Amino acid sequence: MNDRIFGSISFLLSLFYIYSAFIIEESFIQDPVGPKIFPYIIAFFLLTSSLFLIFKPDPKPEWAEFGKIIEVLVTAIVLILYAIILPIIGFVITTFLASSFISWRLGATIKSAFLVSAAISISIFVLFRYVLGLSLATGPLGF
Amino acid sequence: METLNLLLDGFGIALTLDNFILALIGCVLGTIFGALPGLGPANGVAILIPLSFSLGLSATSSMILLASVYYGAMYGGRISSILLNIPGDEPALMTTIDGYPMTLQGRAGEALTLTGFASFFGAMFATIGLVLLAPQLVKVAFLFGPAEYFALFVMAFATLGGVASNNQAKTILASCLGLGISTIGVDHQTGVPRMSYGEIDLYDGIDFLVVIVGMFAVSEVFVFIENTRSSNKDSERPVIGNIIPKLATVLKTVPSMIRSTLLGFFAGVLPGAGASLGSFVAYTFEKKISNKEDTFGKGDERGVTAPEAGNNAAAGGALVPMLALGVPGSGTTAVLLAMLMTLDVTPGPLLFTQNPDVVWGLIAALFIGNVVLLILNVPLVKYFSMILLIPTKYLMPVVAMVSFVGIYGISGSSFDLMVMVLFGLLGWLLRKLSIPLVPVIMGVILGEPMESNLRRAMTIYDGDWSKLLSSNVSLAIWSITIIGFVLPFFFRKKIKSTMSQLKD
To answer: What pLDDT, on a 0 to 100 scale, did the predictor assign at position B232?
Structure first.
């Protein structure tokens, strides 16, 4: 991905944004500007700056090898899964798993990732739940 | 006199046990965030905001905690700059130039002590400057109407693109992304939903805390994952050595501290500049006037005290427009502003009349925090330098998991967490394309007040757009905006060449 591609995406985004602003239903309460003008102004600048990116791009950024990018995307998916199962299973187990994954991908051995993550997960739970009194997700097991 | 009384009241608030402990925690955490490469003031404040919010801290207490983190990070950034030649955060970049050579000469302890004092000097002066300047700016700000405020917000974005960025088109694009996100949800003035496509989760809009934590904390995890190399050797234990410098050395650095503090404070007060510019200007200026024997870049003491005094002074200076006008000039002050807005405290001139306890409690806490930070960063600095030994593979999971705890604590919603991860991914992508994140964050935070000021102005002027330029004040602000936007086109080349010369 380089500036040209991102500029083109932003260009399409600005068109979509204009359309989204266009279909805002006006209310019977009205002020001189209304709810549409500010989005139109933003869209104008978004469109102009995206054209600049398309026609005057910076040199291409250095991308890490393909595998690393996949790794970032997989991490994002793991974190989204974490967000979904957190309220179902509870804080300690899910956090242990997510934290182990990150630690492992950052170069820890599986064994040390598990050990450290168990410590991280339990100490965050104790600190925030019992010392600071914050409500954390509790699953059927109560933790 | 009135100011002095208010400040004394402030000390009464800041010295209560709870607030003092918060300031202490903030200073320690801030120094740690600053010292760790890859994490800086904005990340530290971003991670702690949702926590202080879910813990139900008052506006005053949260501000004391977060501003201590902010000041602390400015102190802490120098530690890894000096010991490892890796800037702990962006403003500490200039400190590597003379700091690391000092370490190679076995004078790391001396460098850390001198910069600790320089940081203290800069931050203390800037806090005094804040006390003197902010109330004056408030008096001026009372003359501002919605048209002037709208102009000020535009100025904040236009000048962001200035010296600091490489490509103005990218800054504008980033600002528009942020502003666009801020328009999602029910329109505050007419009550119609915008950009929501019938999604109930979007009617409330996207909480800016979710965006902030996603972009400043979660994206950091992705950056680290991408850059991990298989040969991940553990960092060596830094040797600090003697921490007491000779009196003559201290005296030699005093003038550089004074000059840099003044420059840094000025750079900080200007919109859109912030601490990085403060340290850059301070170092360049100091080199120009003191580099008579060609000692800079080879471990000259003045080459470390100048940028450190400069960035700490700039950090304090950046609080002036944020508190007095509600218009932040840097990423971290924008995040602090976001926290005040979340707690329904309106920054700007009204803050000084309606919530003097917040302002003066905060300022008093900054004075106390500075003394605490001096102790943490000079006699105790070797304990903080050990933090650099914690490998990122164990540190980043903590950063990520605590970010999740904070956001989940506010809303208890999985949807917010998912949005946060997506913003983390977006933040990572934007950073790859060197599109700055600060304008996005500022757009998300300032979009609502910016639009409502525009619409209020138009209601007053009955829809006549030319009236936006009707007062002298708004004319002046618009002129500064245009100059601030256009001028960097001419100066950027020069600054860039100086920058690359310095880095070599």
So the answer is: 47
Read off the pLDDT band of B90 (50, 70, 90).
confident
**Per residue in B310-335, pLDDT tens?**
999 999 999 999 999 988 878 888 89
Residue A103 to residue B169, Cβ atoms within 8 A = no
**In this predicted model, what pLDDT tens digit does every residue of A86-103 receive, in sequence order?**
999 999 999 999 999 999
B18 lies within 8 A of chain A by CB: no
Average pLDDT, chain B: 87
- Are A90 and A138 contacting, i.e. CB atoms less than 8 angstroms apart? yes
Answer yes or no: do A102 and B405 touch at CB < 8 A: no
Tokens of B452: 């409502």
State the helix-helix crossing angle for A37-55 and A3-22, rounded to 10 degrees: 160
Residue B357 neighbours by CB under 8 Å, 6+ apart:
B9, B10, B13, B60
Q: Which residue of A has its CA nearest to B448?
A: A38
Sign of CA dihedral A69, A75, A79, A85: positive
B151 alpha-carbon distance from chain centroid: 22
Looking at chain B, which residue has its C-alpha nearest residue A80? Answer: B418
DSSP class of residue B504 equals -
Q: Are B35 and B79 in contact (CB under 8 A)?
A: yes
**Inter-helix orientation angle B302-325/B356-377, to 10°:** 170
| A53/B225 Cβ within 8 A | no
Residues 6+ away with beta carbon under 8 Å from B267: B273, B274, B277, B278, B281, B310, B314, B317
Q: Collect all residues of chain B within an 8 Å Cβ-Cβ radius of residue A102.
A: 221, 225, 396-397, 400
| Global confidence as pTM | 0.89
Q: Which residue of A has its CA nearest to B192?
A: A27
C-beta separation of B377 from B119 below 8 A: yes
* Other residues' Cβ atoms within 10 Å of the Cβ of residue B487: 13
What are the residues whose beta carbons fall under 8 Å from the beta carbon of B49, sequence distance 6 or more? B62, B66, B209, B212, B213, B335, B338, B339, B342, B406
Which tokens is B49 given? 């905001």
> Would you tell me which residues 35-94 of chain A have a C-beta closer than 8 angstroms to some C-beta of chain B?
35, 38-39, 42-43, 45-46, 48-50, 52-53, 56, 58, 61, 63-64, 68-69, 71-73, 75-76, 79-80, 82-84, 86-87
Under the banding of pLDDT at 50, 70 and 90, the label for residue B420 is: very high
Q: Which of A125-139, B7-21, B156-170, B215-229 has the lowest mean pLDDT?
A: B156-170
What is the tens place of the pLDDT at every residue in B48-62?
Answer: 998 888 888 999 999
What is the nearest CA distance from A36 to chain B, expressed in angstroms?
A: 9
* Encoded amino acid at B149, one letter: Y
d(CA B322, CA B293): 41
Are residues B405 and A64, on separate chains, in Cβ contact within 8 Å? Answer: no
pLDDT on residue B250: 86
Q: What ipTM was estimated for this complex?
A: 0.93
B458 in contact with A at a CB cutoff of 8 Å? Answer: yes
B129 versus B249: the higher-pLDDT residue is: B129
pLDDT in tens, B196-236: 888 888 888 888 899 999 998 999 999 989 887 654 455 56
